[in-house]
Amino acid sequence: MARNLIILFSLVYLLSNPWPAICADAPGGWNEVGLRMGLQAGYEHGYFRQYEMFAVYGLPWDWRSSSGWGLAPQLSVSAGALLDDPDVSGFIGTVGAGLVLDKPHFGLAPEIGINANFLDKRHFGDQDFGSMLLFGAYIGLFYRFDDGLKIGYRLQHISNGHIFYEEGTPNPGLDMHLIAVSWTF
Question: 2 lies in a domain?
Answer without folding.
Answer: no
